[in-house]
Protein: DUF126 domain-containing protein
Amino acid sequence: MNHSEVILNGKAQGELLVLTEALSFWGGTDISTGRIIDRYHPQVGKLLAGRIVVLPGVKGSTAGTGALLEMLCAGVGPAGFILRGPDIIVTAACQIANNLIATTVPVLRIPDLDFSDQSLAGIWNIDDDQIFIVQSNSIRLNPKGGFPNTKQGSPRRLTTGS
Structure:
């Protein structure tokens, strides 16, 4: 059973980056560039900046919130997050950034979607409780939980230039 939810509303657009392991924002990322620098992480060298990042989990403690907040305030953080489970580090950093710099960094929780499916690759547009994937499917999240309804998306429905 899928319990997808919108944790923080917002609008964002970016290329999907699926991380295969948990990430430490404090020490595992370069906060001046938004690049993964943990040499033991499978996606070392990948840029988080401007991407919709799928996180299976986060390593570390509250120092990670500060590191992620610095990236977001400097404009080198992810455009949005899709979490596999609950995470206070990401949620707190995004909420603080939303308040400090009047931005919107959406945070969604989608625990059961198979992100290894290559048809999900590409540019994603998050618009509050809807996700549009360029030339693929649109997923409407039920904020109260439940299985998301899917329907054919259209590139015309994308909001570009966010």
